[in-house]
Amino acid sequence: MTPPPVQAHAGRVCKSKRCTRIISWFVAVGLLAVAPVHAEDLSGWKLPPVPAPKDNPQTKAKIELGHELVFDVRLAKNDSISCAGCHLPAAGGGGPTPRAFGHGGELGRWAPSWVNSGYYDALFWDGRAASLEEQTGALQGHMGPISAPGEMGGDVDAIVKRLNAIPAYRKAFNDAFGEDATRENVAKAIASFERTLIATDAPFQHFVNGDAKAISASAKRGFEVFRGKGQCVACHTPPLLTDNAFHNIGVPQAGPLAEDKGRYEVTKNKEDMGAFKTPSLYNSGSFYFFMHDGALSTLEQVVDHYDRGGDPKDPHQSPLIQPLKLTAKERVDLVAFMRSLTDPRWDRLRRPALP
Fold first, then answer.
1. On the chain, which terminus has fewer CB atoms closer than 10 Å, C or N?
2. What is the pTM of this model?
């Protein structure tokens, strides 16, 4: 079919091929000018569904029970402290002090955030636990906060007996598991609750899901620094912002320990000397402290640490840590980006009514 003649200026009909090409070019340019610019595909930064073990699928009853247990001081020796006492919601789910305190006094490490911990395949700064269930310390043969003498110091068998003596708790365990409280079910309920603490309502998550106005211009520039000049993505990989691996980043030793060998104590591999788990950065804008030993107390200090290349004198420092030479504006923007990772719901998490 022959196309109709193209109208030129003042109603004249353009019949020549050259005229047609010129007008077609102007039409094409005009269409490009008004056509929407395709946004960058940021789907790789969206937080995925949280995996759950086959023997511990998520249920509402388990989640609600776990919510109660993490706030209950009766899981500790002398009713002294709860899980949430060290994983303080207002502090981004991390420790309110540079190092955690327990029945052993000041411990050697800062309590890391529980936000997004449902994605981890290694728990604790040294990765000695393989699941949230193991990490609780309620399971036989797995020392953790509930059972560690220097932390909550609880006698788990006595705790289980006590929970079953409380009618409302006994009913809650039967509703969730079809049986009374056991070591295993205490661990499973707590882990189920922790798997809900996912930062899907962080402004950055809204941004990568299509809301261009969800984060500030400064945070957007900081995002570019994060995945570019700042080299942050070398370890804080998308979408979780952690590679679930261990690195020595030259953090100064602080606190009561003369030395903390980190991952080396688990693997006995010399390459792991002083290496600690890469934490997710979600809700880090609310943290009171940073690094495995709480040596730093602001995001600005964290950025400065990386910008100067950590501690070049540390013979075990990872070669990934190099001076960045960020400008003052780039450092400000990088902090703005990290603040956009905070899901306010978990900072406002409250203690439920306990049985």
1. N
2. 0.88
